[in-house]
Fold:
Amino acid sequence: MRISVPTIVGGSGAPRRTISPAAAVERIAEFLAPGKVTLLTGAGVSVASGIRAYRGKDGRYMNPNYKPIFYHELTDESEKGFVFRQRYWLRSYLGYPSVRDALPNTSHYAIAALQYASYLPRLVTQNVDGLHHKAIAHLWEPDHIRKQILELHGTLHRVHCKHGHVVPRDVFQDWLSASNPQWKAFVDNLEKTGSKLRTNPDGDVDLEGVSYTDFVVPECPQCTLDGQQSSFYKPELIFFGESIPSRIKDRSFHDIEQSERVFVLGTTLATYSAFRLVKHALELRKPVMLLNVGPTRADELPGVEKLEISSSLVLRDVVRAILGSRASQDSAIVHLLQSGVHQPPAPDHEIVSRILRRG
Structure:
């Protein structure tokens, strides 16, 4: 079976349209002000939270050696599949804390303000980090969040065994720690020294020259109680080569169909599951605005208005422009507009040098 990692065809995209922050704020506010907007977000939104994007400003992979585990590899029932799962869970065990501890940035909170004010009734995110949820969790109940936010590619925060027993990822992380004390000590030392591993947006870290054979993936306790044995776990996210469940696909199309316009933010649209939503919006003759730094798969599509500017430079002011006096009088909106970190990930050479100095 041959499955390739999605790339940006051509890699160059349409000619870049430079725009000032002030002009971008005015145009985005004009686009969003009528409301009934469906927002589609990608990894670029979470960069300021310290979660690295897959691709840089040129549209190319920031890590040229990136080799994800494919769905058919993870689910292989043979000994080879067992080894793939050891590799996945060790790398994910080391990478998950940085995703778990990440905080929403100013863009997440600005989006939350527009959700709270009912300008963005539907949000479809490709991100698996849960930061959109964190940004608005103090205002909305979990059931309401699930109705308003669709995680197109799933979430890192839940895990299930092959028999369907679901466990929170934090609990599973504790199980992995108890089963692998030597790796727990390694993680504790990283936290103690402030060192960081290079983590991809899916919580997978880059490891070279490491043996995975001694990493223990624990048995599912519920399966044991049921008289079964299973150390076959999978996070509730979509792997390369895995089909999106029909209910998720159907809802994503429904969210596009129920909107008056579509706003695309921080994504190259390299994955077809996201790109086809933009195509669907255009087929329905809905206005589409794309805000991203660097080339995207939709750059050549007629009907897509693209602005090349970072969301962190403009979204707060967009909220103020749309909401007017409410932005300074509604205490919930005021709090959202005053919240958010700005902690982009360190360059690769800085991460490596820190580890070498302290390792």
About this structure: The CA atoms of residues 253 and 277 lie 7 Å apart.
